[in-house]
Amino acid sequence: MSGMKSLAKDTAVYGLSSIVGRFLNWCLVPLYTHVFTQAEYGVVTYLYSLVAVLLIILTYGLETGFFRFINHEKYKDSMQVYSTGLISLACTSVIFILVVGLFLDPISSVLGSSGDPRYVMMLAVTLAIDAFTAMPFAYLRYKQRPFRFAGIKLLSIFLNIGLNIFFIILCPILHTSHPGWIASFYRPDFGVGYIFLSNLVASAVTLLVLAPEIVKVHYRFNVEIWRNMIVYSFPLLIMGLAGIMNQTIDKIIYPLLVTDTNRAMAELGVYGANYKIAIVMVMFIQAFRFAYEPFIFAKSRSRGEESQKAYVDAMHYFIIFGLLIFLGVMFYLPVLKYFISPRYFSGLSIVPIVMAGEFFFGIFFNLSLWYKLTDRTYWGTIFSVFGLIITLLINILFVPRYGYTACAWAAFCCYFSMMAVSYCLGEKYYPIPYRWKAALQYVLIAIILYIVAMAVPVWPVVETLLFRTALLLIFIVYAVRRDIPLAELPFIGKYFKKNL
Predict the structure, then answer these.
(1) pLDDT digit string, tens, across residues 331-355
(2) Would you say 484 and 344 are in contact if contact means Cβ atoms under 8 Å apart?
(3) Contacts of residue 395, Cβ cutoff 8 Å, sequence gap at least 6
């Protein structure tokens, strides 16, 4: 029991740091969209999509390989495994910086209007640092030091946010009133470059703070361990690459599918900004994932009805709360849309499509337990590649005509297809009696409430929100009366037990 409590505590700390970090970075979007033009924010969206893919490549699954072999009975010296992984990532990160530096001009030319050499070099160094520090962060997890792990992550995030505010808000004010104070380091025409500079400084400080995990190591490179780690990690690299490409490929290829480069970057900026509104669903899924994997593997130890019921309940409650989040965002969009600048409102139509797609991805993640519990994890790679093919086909065929709306529908179709195929195969290899009839009733109620909310003529904002709040309460009351035992919930449960 004490082991499970420790696992739960560590999961909460790691999960909180990740979710809080994502939320805080999400809060920078209003700043970016109000300060920068659509085309400028399109550059940010495009380059960070490339960064997400490159980070997977530069870490090449070595974190998971590290955990596998540092606990391997064959290798008793844990520090040898750690130092081998650390040296490997250090070498590949340095090589990456050198290659980008040597071929900076050709790389910048290939990236077109987004390829300012200064931006490219800053992002290359940031990427190399982040890839290298992945191993010290993995080591902290191995040593069960979640608070140091979370503290360093949050320090980096707060520093990044502080520098963004300093360069993008404070410096322009000082440049107008007291230009001499910042003349030595501030250039008004550097624009979105300050976003990349802030990220670089935050990553560099993270590297310095992790110095004890890097310097106080007796370095020994074991070729056998390294070879085994690479062989073990390579399939994970393919799986991770396919997975991240599902999320970013539409943004990466968008400038190639729209003939007018300037229009492409402006539309990409609109798409990226509105995608951020829908990321509320992504954060919910992220929080769920941190708790779910330890939960299912713990339940897998108990056979029979107990474990089956746990899996069924987890899916059912995910669907309920996922639909509640979808309705909440869509019903209050007249207010939430001001999260971004009015210049980006033309893309609000993609928000429900993207949120529905992410909802399907959450169900797919729930369904994925069948291949995890039966040791058929290769299916995860197959599903990711299958989804990537769908995403590519829809984008290539329809983006030239329908623009970023096709990107949203591509994500929707990708995740829906992955969910459907995973369910069909799960029924064959590891059937679970999910409550699909009850789930379908919730989905139908949510669709009806959504249609009613959208069909009613637009009133003044207050009246509209009151009406939609009443609709949302209908869904909540239905869920509470049918499935959610309030007396069993944390915190508020004590109140109901006391007063009912």
Answers:
(1) 999 998 988 999 999 999 999 999 9
(2) no
(3) 249, 250, 253, 254, 257, 406, 407, 410
Angle formed by the axes of helices 38-59 and 78-102, nearest 10°: 140
Amino acid at 397: L
Structure tokens at 189: 């025409």
Q: Which residue has the tokens 């929707």?
A: 412
Q: Is the alpha carbon torsion for 180, 185, 190, 192 positive or negative?
A: negative
pLDDT at 202: 96
* CA gap 255, 271 in Å, rounded: 12
Percent of all residues in the chain with a pLDDT value above 90, rounded to a whole number: 50
410: nearest Cα among 431, 386, 394: 394
pLDDT in tens, 104-138: 999 998 887 677 899 999 999 999 999 999 999 98
DSSP string covering 477-498:
HHHHHHT--GGGSTTHHHHHHH
Alpha-carbon gap, residue 29 to 27, rounded angstroms = 5
Please state the three-class secondary structure of the chain as a single string: CHHHHHHHHHHHHHHHHHHHHHHHHHCCHHHHHHHCCHHHHHHHHHHHHHHHHHHHHHHCCHHHHHHHHHCCCCCCCHHHHHHHHHHHHHHHHHHHHHHHHHCHHHHHHHCHHHCCHHHHHHHHHHHHHHHHHHHHHHHHHHCCCHHHHHHHHHHHHHHHHHHHHHHHHHHHHHHHHCHHHHCCCCCHHHCCHHHHHHHHHHHHHHHHHCHHHHHCCCCCCCHHHHHHHHHHHHHHHHHHHHHHHHHHHHHHHHHHHCCCHHHHHHHHHHHHHHHHHCHHHHHHHHHHHHHHHHHHHHHCCCCCHHHHHHHHHHHHHHHHHHHHHHHHHHHCHHHHHHHCCHHHHHHHHHHHHHHHHHHHHHHHHHHCHHHHHCCCCHHHHHHHHHHHHHHHHHHHHHHHHHCHHHHHHHHHHHHHHHHHHHHHHHHHHCCCCCCHHHHHHHHHHHHHHHHHHHHCCCCCHHHHHHHHHHHHHHHHHHHHHHCCCHHHCCCHHHHHHHHC
The CA distances from residue 160 to 124, 166, 204, 206, 348, in Å, are 17, 10, 11, 11, 28
CA-based nearest residue to 312, from 325, 324, 299: 299
Distance CA 128, CA 98 (A): 10
Angle at 64 between CA 59 and CA 69, to 5 degrees: 120
3-class DSSP string for 303-317: CCHHHHHHHHHHHHH
Residue 50 confidence (pLDDT) above 90: yes
The rounded distance, in Å, linking the Cα atoms of 198 and 156 is 10
Residue pLDDT, tens place only, 200-242: 999 999 999 999 999 988 888 989 889 988 888 887 788 788 8
